Amino acid sequence: xxxxxxxxxxxxxxxxxxxxxxxxxxxxxxxxxxxxxxxxxxxxxxxxxxxxxxxxxxxxxxxxxxxxxxxxxxxxxxxxxxxxxxxxxxxxxxxxxxxxxxxxxxxxxxxxxxxxxxxxxxxxxxxxxxxxxxxxxxxxxxxxxxxxxxxxxxxxxxxxxxxxxxxxxxxxxxxxxxxxxxxxxxxxxxxxxxxxxxxxxxxxxxxxxxxxxxxxxxxxxxxxxxxxxxxxxxxxxxxxxxxxxxxxxxxxxxxxxxxxxxxxxxxxxxxxxx
Amino acid sequence: xxxxxxxxxxxxxxxxxxxxxxxxxxxxxxxxxxxxxxxxxxxxxxxxxxxxxxxxxxxxxxxxxxxxxxxxxxxxxxxxxxxxxxxxxxxxxxxxxxxxxxxxxxxxxxxxxxxxxxxxxxxxxxxxxxxxxxxxxxxxxxxxxxxxxxxxxxxxxxxxxxxxxxxxxxxxxxxxxxxxxxxxxxxxxxxxxxxxxxxxxxxxxxxxxxxxxxxxxxxxxxxxxxxxxxxxxxxxxxxxxxxxxxxxxxxxxxxxxxxxxxxxxxxxxxxxxxxxxxxxxxxxxxxxxxxxxxxxxxxxxxxxxxxxxxxxxxxxxxxxxxxxxxxxxxxxxxxxxxxxxxxxxxxxxxxxxxxxxxxxxxxxxxxxxxxxxxxxxxxxxxxxxxxxxxxxxxxxxxxxxxxxxxxxxxxxxxxxxxxxxxxxxxxxxxxxxxxxxxxxxxxxxxxxxxxxxxxxxxxxxxxxxxxxxxxxxxxxxxxxxxxxxxxxxxxxxxxxxxxxxxxxxxxxxxxxxxxxxxxxxxxxxxxxxxxxxxxx
Lengths: 274, 536
Hints:
The complex is a heterodimer. By secondary structure, chain A is an alpha+beta fold. In chain A, 34% of the residues lie in helices and 16% in strands.
């Protein structure tokens, strides 16, 4: 059995075994409580969770949880960090280190106690898309992605591909099929976070196009279309122009048929599921 | 004989001066605070003086030599510097070679201002269930006599021995479990320590308190939300006054001539939902003129009535005397620069200093009044500025030499949408949600405003929004910072860049200046460190 001394759980025998057992049982019950949603299918919890979601989550995930500039679409049944009640609770409660996803308590701009987290999960279940539209042929999509469609010239999946566009390895678990299709047909509608297009002209008159990796008032770090990292001082540039037009060309149906695009999306969804 | 007597007399005076200097270590009298301009080597209050100018009369660092500034020393607080649970927001105080500051999670420290070496450190043991809405932050101290004073995140007011950091007194102002915290730097006036809580996101009932500096006994309290029977309670629907918010979480100003304390308040609660609290909701988003001895209200001016956009008026109010006029001005979060008569609180002008789309009319007093369709809606309504405001708590600066008022101004627009909540003590209580509009500019700048006209004379653009306070000096320069970590020196007359330094952490506080051994220093916090700069 385990005993608790000074707040630390240690293996060993406790002189008063019953109290140790009771504590253990209490801990086990508490642990189980973290795994199951006490508000499952409760309509009132859906409304409360919707409010908590709007206040705490919509900043990144959008008002209807369909994804925003920074956060993934949470109406999808696939989720990068797990879609079980326990996994969702853990993700919301603890946050995701290394990302913008904060912990539910103690972080600036977010504050949800356990009950409120469960209410948010109840709300998310109520808007979850149970049967997503059928995707295309993943094998053909993969061939197109790395071949005729040219996607891999700029995008990576599983470490293979280019660097000029977002890594698409996990896009299938963060964005809906419709959203991915729209980004291919209309890539400039919303530039991916961190991929602002820029054109600079150096003091010598050389024009270079690429995307901004970072910038401040005095310097710019960019990647050009040859994947070279350029470190520039603003005051030495002849011109510096940002653009909301994506480096990615729009693919219309003459360049990429609806069927082929659905196959590519099928590949991305399958990759995301993995 | 006479010569000997003269020599003896001089020796005695010198000895007395040396003795006094030793004895006077840390002794800050009310008279010194009133006449702080006589000792520009020191920085004695949050804003540098009672008028809240955040102006230093030091001129060693100036337009000609500012390009050559170098880092002098850096102090690491040990607090988390990534900003995930609050940033390093203190404005340090300097008294006779000692620098005092606060940092996140109840840290207080005293340093050798010449070297940055610690003299003492204190950290409060905080309960685990405190409710700071916006980070575990603190913006600084007050100093009076031989004590420094600060507020804690569990709503205590404390006095520490300025020489040792030992606790002299510790008073619970209110119940932190209901969402009250202290993040503000208190203000010492006469023998009183003035302080006001944060907690407008928790449905607190705000107040301004005054504590006896010697004993910690509370001398007066002014509730910023009046109870039934008091003037102003009629501006609240039903019992909504009980959770009305109106916290005073930024340090005010003081006019020794009229003995008026000027303190501002934040949003009504719930912060973004007007249903259930119909009325103007006094004294939320208000500039209060209080009698410093009694806390009695002399006059008040409410900037944003019945606010539903989180436009706290907790921006530093600045006392200005110009062209024979006795004024108090504020660059408000709602996007307007307000000019008021200081004696009676009469509005003289209100001029936008950033992009504003919430008003196209003024009320009978000349106050910008909201258009009919500005409330949050279920599907969301776009409004400029967003909740962050055109400016916010970070300090402006007024330079009496240039006659210009400098402010950090951010252009932003939010989508405000409804999200009903019921009040539960100690729980967040917003009642609405907001997020940046897709087309929000997200652009920041320093703007130099002519106070009497409200016109912007020049602007310096940042690459994104900035939360940096400003410092102007008699050297004709202006210090600012940006979200990318640059600490920047501008020419105060025209706004061109003279120098910059990459600190490696977001600038999220206000600069201050001091001198030791006749050498001028400028200090700023960034990340988890306090940086100082001076001439080589």
